[in-house]
Structures are given as C-alpha cells and as structure tokens.
Amino acid sequence: MRGLWTTDRVRAAEERVMAVVPAGALMRRAAFGVAVVAAELLAGGRRVGLLVGAGNNGGDALWAGYYLRKRGVAVSAVLLTPDRVHAEGLAAFRRVGGRVVDRLADVDLVIDGIVGLSARGPLRPDAAEHVAHLDAPVLSVDLPSGIDPDTGATSGPAVRAHTTVTFGCLKPVHALADCGDVRLVDIGLAGELHGPDLVELDVADVGLAWPVPGPEDDKYTQGVTGIAAGSATYPGAAVLAAGAALLSTSGLVRYAGAAAEGVRARWPEAVCTGSVTDAGRVQAWVVGPGLGTGLGAEAVLRTVLEAGVPVCADADAITMLANNPDLWDARDPDTPLVLTPHDREYERLAGPVGDDRVTAARKAAERFNAVVLLKGHATVVAGPDGRVLVNRARSSWAATAGSGDVLSGVLGSLLAAGLDPVLAAGCAAKVHVLAAELAADGAPIPATSLLGAIPDAIRAVRPL
Ligand SMILES: NC(=O)C1=CN([C@@H]2O[C@H](COP(=O)(O)OP(=O)(O)OC[C@H]3O[C@@H](n4cnc5c(N)ncnc54)[C@H](O)[C@@H]3O)[C@@H](O)[C@H]2O)[C@@H](O)CC1
Ligand SMILES: Nc1ncnc2c1ncn2[C@@H]1O[C@H](COP(=O)(O)OP(=O)(O)O)[C@@H](O)[C@H]1O
Ligand SMILES: [K+]
C-alpha cells in the first residue's frame, strides 16, 4: 500500500520540519538524492545537463549539479529565468565549475528542475522548446515538469521522464500520471505527514484481501453474486459479467434476465432465470451492463436496489439513475452501492469530470452516498467516507468494448464475498488491469481474452 499526499499537505509538513532544521538542509538532502540517482543512471556517461526553473525545484537541480561536479561529472545548466533563479544553488554550482549555457547539447542525462510542487499548467513555451529538442533520458526532480502535481493532468507540453526522484513522500501525480521509474528520497518529513490523502493498493494488499474458500465453506457461504445484465440486443454483456464473477470467486453465481440462454450456454455452472424477481437470494447484485434503459430495465434496477444487499451499478444502470432520479428512492441508504461510471456516464450523473479526477470521484461519492469507481487509464475509487484509492494502468489494452462488463462482474463477486466496498472496488480495478496486461502481452485483445486471464491475474496477486 502506497500513500500519496497532496501538495498542500506536503508544504505544511515541510514548513514544520524546516522550522527545526538548519536553513537549506532539506534542499541539500533532496539534491543529494537526485545526484545519487543521476550517477546511477549515467552508468558510463560523463555529461549532465540541467534545465533550471525559477523556484526551489531549480534550486534542487543546481545543488544536484554541484554534487555531480564534485564527483567529476561535466555539468551544464540552462537557466530558463536568469533573473529568477535559486541564488545560493547557482553560486554553489558555479563555485565547482558548473557551466551556464544557452542550450543543452551532447549530454548523457538531463535533470529536469523546471518546476515542481508549484507547477500550474503545461510547460511555458520557452521551457517546452528546450524539452522538445532533448535526446537524452530525463531525470525529473520531484515530478515531470508540465504535469499537475495534484491531479496528474497534462494540458499541453510536458516532460517525459525516464525516472523521477521525489522527496519525503509520494504526491498524487506519481500514481495518476506517467513519471517513469519513481524513486523516493527520505528528507525527514515522515513524522509530520500523518495519514495520506490517497492510497494506491499494491499486489500484496489485493492478494491478502482476495476471498479464498476455507475448509468450512460451501458455494453459499462464500457469497452468491447476482448478475442483472444483458438483453436480447446485448446478450454479450451478460456473458462477460457473469463469467467474470464466476472466475473471481468459487461462490455461486446467479444470472437473471433476457440473456439467460446465452449465459447458460457459455457458463453451465451459472444458475440462470429470466427475471430478477425469481432469481433466489444473492449477497450482492451487479446491475446494468447491456441491460437497456426502457421501463423493463428500470423495474429491474428498482428491484435490485430494494433488495437490501450491496449493488454494483454499471453502464445502463448509471444512465437510468441519471435520467430518472426517483430511482434513488428505491435504495436503502445504509446498503452499499458502488457506481462504476466511465467519463461519459459520470457526466450524465454529475456533470463533466474535468481535469481533476480525484475531486470528481470524491464529489460524486459524497453526493450520492456511494462508492464511485471512475474508470479510465487512471481509475479512481472514492468512498462516501472520504477514502480514495487510485490505480493507474501500465498499458491501455483494457480500453476495449466489453472490458467494463468484466470489471463489474469481478467487483460484484467481491461485494458478495463481503469485502468492504471501497476495498472491493480497488481490488477489482487492480486485478482487471493485471488481467488486461497478461492477456494482451503487447497485442490488442477482445474482452473475452481479458476475462480468460482473470485466474492468472488472481494467481499473480495471491501470496505464495
Ligand atoms: N519546500 C521545501 O522544503 C523543499 C522543496 N523542495 C523543492 O522545491 C520545489 C517547490 O519549489 P517552489 O515552491 O519554489 O516552486 P517550483 O520550483 O515548483 O516553481 C517555481 C516557479 O515556476 C513557475 N512555474 C509554475 N508553473 C510553471 C510551468 N508550467 N512552466 C514553467 N514554469 C512554471 C512559477 O513561477 C513558480 O513559482 C519542490 O518541487 C522541490 O523540488 C526540495 O528542495 C525539498 C525541500
Ligand atoms: N486508456 C485506458 N487505459 C487503460 N484502461 C482503460 C483505458 N480506457 C478504459 N480503460 C478501462 O477499460 C474498461 C472500459 O470500461 P467501459 O468503458 O465501461 O467499457 P464497456 O462498456 O465497453 O464494457 C474500464 O475498466 C476502464 O478502466
Ligand atoms: K521537475
């Protein structure tokens, strides 16, 4: 489990630490950490170039240049704002023979000290111009310049980092955007940080949480998952969601709806009926994928919301909740509800997602008193209690039709097994991403292949 702290919290912690350590100590700890990683990345190379911005991020780069010079590395620096530069860092850099140049040329590694925690918006044109011409790998100081530290959003030119060295703690950008290989340097903030704002689950967390049957278990005790999905027009969504539930736990899966014949043909182990009203008892429902939005579908959604068990509402269920707010009344507010919108579904529910996906998920979670899993390359799970989990994919192969239906089936089975709904959503997102990676292995895949890789993904997270 990795914690992530927003810039406000980091600054507050830094201020408290800076009040009790000698001036400049934190920056030198940070810069030394950058220099150590730079020396490692240089391997046989001997020439480092610095891109130096107006603030302390530039100061870090200059001090890192100072330490590298002292190790005999040739270091040159471009000062992007010569009238606003970290004076002490520049003086130290010059003192050891660092050169100030107009443009970086013939360097083996670039250190990006353009902007850090105070970054706003994309790279300014002059900085963008220097970055556009780089052909050496880039080591970013704190974060890749041009990416928003708190949202991970990029709205124009930004640095593409091979490695990022950050200080004290991870920030949201490190989980929400591509920062290359992220290294964390301890500068002594730990005692002042307190609980993180966001959490990224690691495979061990997911493996430990994943339901495993014990000697006393049978098919009912592990939680029965109900799937209310699919229609005559979209039977495939039902097959995918039911299959995902079947592959995620060994508990029973019931399917109820118009695609019963197709589900039975593909998954003989599923117990299929034509309607949710005669489906039998379940411990959680998945409702929505391929269901349609007509009156019949509304009745299904209402029945499921009234059932008094946790519900994962996806796809058409979200659209119906957005179009017909009366449907919210069917729900018992004390029973967990997980909404799994993609951006367009989110927009129907709560307006445009915008650049700040974490805030968007948080707002909707609070407004609807539900867990909101906002899907995308970076998936954000927000609980109505303020907890937030983030999970970024390392590839985009999951962006394929039907892949969301698979996610909802996995999530439904974890709800049925009784997992806390925020954890269930985080675990489902993680295993979904892993399954996509394993199935794709570098080439496009249909959602059925992603589905087929669920067992391998679960094996990959489970403790040995
Ligand atoms: N506060 C501390 O104790 C420490 C801070 N450290 C460093 O200090 C950094 C934060 O420094 P600052 O708060 O001085 O600010 P930055 O160095 O992040 O930014 C400086 C200035 O860059 C300009 N800028 C903003 N957005 C830009 C963009 N998109 N393109 C180009 N220029 C832009 C603004 O004028 C801004 O004030 C951290 O990221 C970290 O690298 C480290 O030395 C560790 C200790
Ligand atoms: N660019 C991307 N990179 C990685 N995963 C993605 C990307 N875009 C979408 N996904 C994932 O793919 C799935 C798509 O779900 P959804 O849009 O509901 O598809 P469908 O309705 O066709 O099943 C979600 O799990 C989402 O997180
Ligand atoms: K930077």
From TrEMBL:
* Keyword hit for Transcription: no
What cofactors are annotated for this protein?
K(+); Mg(2+)
Q: Which UniProt keywords apply?
A: ATP-binding, Isomerase, Kinase, Lyase, Metal-binding, Multifunctional enzyme, NAD, NADP, Nucleotide-binding, Potassium, Transferase
What Enzyme Commission number(s) apply to this enzyme? 4.2.1.136, 5.1.99.6
What this protein catalyses is: (6R)-NADPHX = (6S)-NADPHX; (6S)-NADHX + ADP = AMP + phosphate + NADH + H(+); (6R)-NADHX = (6S)-NADHX; (6S)-NADPHX + ADP = AMP + phosphate + NADPH + H(+)
One GO MF annotation is:
kinase activity
A Gene Ontology annotation in the biological process aspect, one of them, is: nicotinamide nucleotide metabolic process
Concerning its family, UniProt says:
In the C-terminal section; belongs to the NnrD/CARKD family. In the N-terminal section; belongs to the NnrE/AIBP family.
Q: Which residues bind (6S)-NADPHX?
A: 56-60, 116-122, 142, 237, 290, 342, 405
- Protein's recorded name: Bifunctional NAD(P)H-hydrate repair enzyme
How would you summarize the oligomeric state and partners of this protein?
Homotetramer.
Indicate whether Heme appears among the record's keywords. Answer: no
